[in-house]
Amino acid sequence: MVPLKPLARAKSRLGRAVGDALRPGLALAFAQDTVGAALSCPAVRDVVVVTDDAAAGAALSALGARIVADGPAGGLNAALTHGGRAARAAWPGAPVAALNADLPALRPGELARVLDFSVRFPRTFVTDAAGIGTTFLSAAAGVELCPAFGGPSRARHLSSGAVENTLPGLDSVRQDVDTGDDLRAALVLGVGPHTADRWAARTRAVDR
Fold first, then answer.
1. Tell me, what's the pLDDT at 77?
2. Parallel, antiparallel, or unpaired: how do β-strands 123-127 and 66-68 relate?
3. What is the pLDDT along the chain (208 residues), one digit of tens a residue?
4. Which strand ranges, in their side-by-side order, compose the sheet holding 2-3?
5. Residues β-bridged to residue 96
6. Which residues contact 195 (CB under 8 A, 6 or more apart)?
7. What is the residue extent of each domain of the chain?
8. Which candidate, 55, 190, 205, 206, has a CA 20 to 30 Å from the CA of 111?
9. Superfamily of domain 2-200
10. Which residues pair with 126 in a beta bridge?
C-alpha cells in the first residue's frame, strides 16, 4: 500500500526549499516513481494507493495501481490500515506491505531484497535515511500490519515487535524526501523519470 495526501497539502516541508508552486507536482512525481518502481518489482503482485486526490489517483491508476479512497480520513496510519484491508479483500491470505509515497529513487531490485527479507518474519520495517522514521513496513499472511508511521516511528515499530531490516545497499528504499537536503540526496542516487522531468523543467525555468 502507498498512502498519498491530497497534493495541495503534500510535502509541506519541501515547499520551503522548492516553493509552493512546484511542491504539488513534485509530490505527484515522487509517488509516480515510487509506484512505477514497485510495479516493476517481480515480487509485487498489486499496488494499492490510498488517496482522495482525484488527479493523483488518475495518474497513478494509469501506471497500473489500484486506487482506494481514504475512507477513514483519519491520517496516515488509519489510511494504511484501511488500505491493508482492501488489499487482503482482493488477495485473501496474502502478506502486505506499506511503502512511503516519497521514494523517487526507489529501485525494483532493492525493493525485491527488502521483500525477500520480510518473508522470514511476521513483521519487518526499513528505517529512513535519517535513522528516525520508517519507509517500509510489512506483515505476513494473517498478521496485522499495526502501522505507527510519523515522526520517530523507528522506535515505535521496534517496540511493537517488528524486525528492523539492516541489510546494506538499500539506499533507494531508505531515501524519502521531506526537505531540500533529502531531495538533493535522492537526485544523487538517481531519481525516476517523473521526478527527473519535473526537476529538469524547474531548472529550465530558473535558467530563463
1. 97
2. unpaired
3. 999 999 999 999 998 889 899 999 999 999 999 999 999 999 999 999 999 999 999 999 999 999 999 988 899 999 999 999 999 999 998 999 999 999 999 999 999 999 999 999 999 999 999 999 999 999 999 999 999 999 999 999 999 999 999 999 999 999 999 999 999 999 999 999 999 999 998 766 555 5
4. 2-3, 48-50, 66-68
5. 139
6. 26, 29, 30, 32, 33, 104, 186
7. 2-200
8. 55
9. Spore Coat Polysaccharide Biosynthesis Protein SpsA; Chain A (3.90.550.10)
10. 136
Only one residue has cell 541489510, namely: 167
Query: The C-alpha cell of 93 is what?
Result: 491470505
Residue 160 C-alpha cell reads as: 511493537
Q: Which single residue is written with the C-alpha cell 488509519?
A: 78
